[in-house]
Every structure is written in structure tokens, then in C-alpha cells.
Write a structure and sequence with these properties.
- There is one protein chain.
- The chain has 464 residues and is of the alpha/beta class.
- The chain has 3 domains: 13-42 and 242-297 and 398-463, FAD/NAD(P)-binding domain (3-Layer(bba) Sandwich); 52-88 and 214-218 and 300-394, Polyamine Oxidase, Chain A, domain 2, CATH 3.90.660; 110-210, Guanine Nucleotide Dissociation Inhibitor, domain 1 (Orthogonal Bundle).
- 35% of the residues lie in helices and 24% in strands.
- The strands form 5 sheets. A 7-stranded mixed β-sheet has the order 8-7-16-17-18-15-19.
- Helix 1 (21-32) packs parallel to helix 14 (430-463) and helix 2 packs across helix 14.
- The longest helix is centred in the last third of the chain and has 34 residues, at 430-463.
């Protein structure tokens, strides 16, 4: 989609508040259209919730982030910032499944077109009985016809729908939770039917290749901070780190943004790309966005366990666990600085219980669980074990939540919203963040163009 070009010599000042993926995408979108862009970020880095850090010489990500081949906006951002070589993407969906006692299975798509590409994987899934597998296939077909844009569908629980379609506890654990929990960051009982159906329809039931899994092969900050920062610099975006917005005011001439540790910024248009709770505090009343509604979106946590063994215990790049507390486990040894042994990251989504657990209690629960899935881990020495917790990792896509998600446009001309919590139709993923930023950027450029047209009309009338 081509954007209107804004004359840099005229009124074309954009301020983007927030340096996560949505803010980065918005800044690049506006700069591409010719606007003069300033991006401010309260932290000392870009990347928002997808970043890395050093711990005892280990280059660790705060949590494991993946993307799918259907995540077109995020993949385009990787190209734009020159980071495609920093990720890997499966040539064909292939998920190793681990169960206690060393049992294994795989969910691997075939080369057939959708929806036949998953038939063999589901009918041959050894962790369910034949009757359960056939029931899953029937429910999967039914899920493909659910109208994800129907408010009545969004008001329903995915768990209730699964029960109505004959999915027992074993099938929910072995198939449905396997996909729903890490993508929506909620259990099937808590997730909106519309949001869960969107995940399955776009990621598994549409294009055959849509669900192929990708992930970073370098620490996340190499991509979302360093590469993105260089791309913003090349685009002419002025980035101000460690400068957060403390107040926003709208006036006839645009917006004033009070900034911590810096003079007030003036902007013709403004993109607010922050978390929903910060947005609720900063948004002027004239924007027409309910702060109470944003607070009702709530939050759902993610807990990540970082385990370094003295030897290799996992022979796959990643795997998913079923019938176990372990959800997803990734081999993060390459690029981590770990020179001997193996570094695994265990991601626990919708981790309300684990969020409150002490490190020793998490260790006592999960090391034996890992050993039950990975026999080699039972005799391996654990050299490092530490925990990262994202208390408010995502909003809660519960029944009815979509009605609380505003779009990029507000009632205040020139003020646009971005963030995974805005109404992208996607759950709170990196793809949703980039889509929201691009939409907000387009909204900002449109507002600048309207402003320029009005000012041109005024000048013409004055001449006449």
C-alpha cells in the first residue's frame, strides 16, 4: 500500500511514544512517507518485551519468542531492518512432542494443500487413541468455519466450544492447549473462542505453509534493539532512549509531550505505542478511549526457566510437552555464550501459579519434569538455573475482550494508538505489535496529509 508523501519542509512532525516493536514499526512507516519522526523510549534500549540480557556470561532472552510463516508483517520488518539472517524458519511445520516416560510423537505437515496437509499428522498422532484423533479432526474442521469477527463468538469460551464438540481432557491437553496456550497466553477455558479460532484458522487451517515455525538464532536485542536502531537511524528517525512521556496535551497546533529529563516536545501528530495501563494514564479525555476499558483488558504472565546442563539432553531445536508441567522447551545454546553443555529455555505461558512460586520451588518442580521428558537430563549436572518473569506479558484475550480493544484511530485527530492490545485481530504477539504499528503509522500520515490540505486551502483563500 502506497502512502501519501509528506513534505518535510512543511508541517510533518511525528512523535512516537514507545520503542517496542509497535513503536519501531510506526516510526519506520512515518519516516518512509517523508515525515520528520522522533521516537522516545523510557528504557535504555529498543525492543519492548522482546529483548535479551546477560546473566553470568550467558546471553539470555527474557523469554522465548517465535513467529510463524503467516506472520508476514513481522517478517517484512525483519527484512526492512536487515535481520533476516538472524532468524531461522522451518521449511515445513514439524513440532516434536514429548510426554512423560520418554514417549514421543510429532506434528508434521505434509506437502499436500490445506487442509489436507495436517490429516496424516492428526490421524497418526500416537499420544491419543484412534477415536480421540478422529474427534480432533472433526472439531478442527468445525473450527475452520467459525466467524472470528462475530461479537457473539468472541463472547464465548474456547473451552466451552471444545466441550460441545466432544473434546475430552486428553485431547485438550495433547492438541488444543498445545497451540492455544503459547499463542493466546491463556488456558482454553479462559480464552475467547474468536481469538483461539483466529489462531488456528490463520496459523494451521489456511495456507499449508502458514504454521511453519521461526525463531531468532541470536539474542533478541541483536534484532529488536541494535538492528532496529540502525534501521531507524538510516531512515532519519531521531531516537531518544531513557526519555519517557509523562504527560500529553492536545492543542490547536498539534500536541505537546512532556518528557522526563528533556524539554517538552511539540508534534503535529502523535503515535502512542505503550502498554494499555500506560496508555490509560497518558491519553487525553478528548481521545475518547475508555481508560477503564483498557484496564479491563487485564494482563496474563509468562514465566521462563533458564537451565544450563553439563551435556546435551535435547536433540531437537525445540519441543513441546504434553501431560507434563513443561510446556515448550528450546535449545538456546548457539549464540548464548555457553561453550560446554546445553542451555535450555522453558517457556510457561498463562503462568499465574508459577509467577508466585519461589525459584527453589520452580526448580524442584521442573527439573524432575524435564528429566521425565528427556532421559539424558536425569543424569546431567545442572550448572545454572534462573528464572525470568513477565508479570504483564500480554493482555487477556478472554471472552468479550475484543470489544475493549481500540483501533489505531482515536476521536482526537492526529492521535493514533499502537500496541498488541489494539484491535489487530491477532493475539498479543510480535506480529500483532508490528501490524498495529504500521496501522498507526498510516493513520498518522493520513492525519498529516489532511492537515496539510487544510493549511493549503487557508493559504489559497488568503491569496484570493
Amino acid at each position: 500500500m502506497s502512502l501519501p508523501v509528506v513534505d518535510r519542509r512543511g508541517p510533518g512532525r511525528v512523535v512516537v511514544v514507545g520503542g517496542g516493536l509497535s513503536g519501531i514499526a510506526a516510526g519506520l512507516e512515518c519516516a518512509r512517507a517523508g515525515a520528520s519522526v522522533t521516537l522516545i523510549e523510557s528504557r535504555g534500549r529498543l525492543g519492548g518485551a522482546a529483548y535479551s540480557f546477560d546473566r553470568h556470561g550467558i546471553h539470555a532472552d527474557n523469554g522465548q519468542h517465535i513467529f510463524l510463516r503467516c506472520c508476514t508483517a513481522y517478517r517484512e520488518l525483519l527484512e526492512e531492518i536487515g535481520a533476516t539472517h538472524m532468524v531461522t524458519l522451518q521449511p515445513r511445520l514439524d513440532i516434536p512432542i514429548l510426554a512423560p516416560g520418554g514417549r514421543r510423537a510429532r506434528l508434521r505437515r505434509s506437502g499436500l494443500p490445506a487442509p489436507l496437509h495436517l490429516t496424516r499428522a492428526l490421524t497418526g498422532y500416537r499420544l491419543l487413541s484412534l477415536g480421540e484423533r478422529l474427534s480432533v479432526v472433526r472439531a478442527m474442521r468445525a473450527l475452520g468455519s467459525v466467524n472470528v469477527d462475530d461479537p457473539a463468538v468472541d463472547a464465548r469460551s474456547f473451552g466451552d466450544w471444545l466441550a460441545e464438540h466432544g473434546q475430552d481432557e486428553r485431547a485438550v491437553e495433547a492438541i488444543w492447549s498445545l497451540i492455544c496456550r503459547p499463542t493466546v497466553n491463556l488456558s482454553v477455558e479462559d480464552a475467547s473462542l474468536a481469538q483461539a479460532a483466529q489462531v488456528f484458522q490463520v496459523g494451521l487451517l489456511g495456507e499449508a505453509s502458514a504454521g511453519d515455525v521461526g525463531h531468532a538464532i541470536v539474542p533478541l536485542s541483536e534484532i529488536h534493539d541494535r538492528a532496529a536502531g540502525l534501521a531507524l537511524q538510516r531512515a532519519g528517525v531521531h531516537v531518544m532512549l531513557r526519555h519517557g512521556a509523562t504527560a500529553l496535551r492536545a492543542g490547536r497546533g498539534g500536541f505537546s509531550i512532556e518528557v522526563s529529563g528533556a524539554p517538552t516536545l511539540e508534534a503535529d501528530v502523535l503515535v502512542l505505542a505503550v502498554s494499555p495501563d500506560r496508555a490509560a494514564r497518558l491519553l487525553p479525555a478528548e481521545a475518547g478511549v475508555s481508560g477503564a476499558g483498557l484496564e479491563r483488558l487485564g494482563s496474563s504472565p509468562i514465566v521462563n526457566l533458564h537451565v544450563v546442563y553439563d551435556r546435551r539432553v535435547l536433540d531437537e531445536p525445540f519441543a513441546a510437552g504434553v501431560y507434563t508441567p513443561v510446556q515448550w522447551v528450546f535449545d538456546r545454546t548457539a549464540g548464548s555464550g555457553v561453550r560446554a553443555g546445553q542451555y535450555l529455555a522453558v517457556t510457561l505461558s498463562a503462568a499465574d501459579e508459577e509467577l508466585e512460586m519461589a525459584v527453589d520451588d520452580l526448580r524442584a518442580r521442573y527439573l524432575p519434569a524435564l528429566a521425565d521428558l528427556l532421559p539424558a537430563a536425569g543424569s546431567a549436572e545442572v550448572r545454572e538455573f534462573f528464572v525470568t518473569r513477565e508479570h504483564s506479558a500480554t493482555f487477556r484475550a478472554t471472552p468479550g475482550a475484543r470489544a475493549l480493544r481500540p483501533g489505531p484511530r482515536t476521536q482526537l485527530p492526529g492521535l493514533a494508538l499502537a500496541g498488541t492490545w489494539t484491535d489487530t485481530g491477532w493475539p498479543a504477539t510480535m506480529e500483532s505489535a508490528v501490524r498495529s504499528g504500521r496501522a498507526a503509522g498510516r493513520e498518522a500520515i493520513s492525519a498529516l496529509s489532511l492537515r496539510a490540505d487544510r493549511e493549503t486551502d487557508v493559504r489559497v483563500k488568503e491569496v484570493v
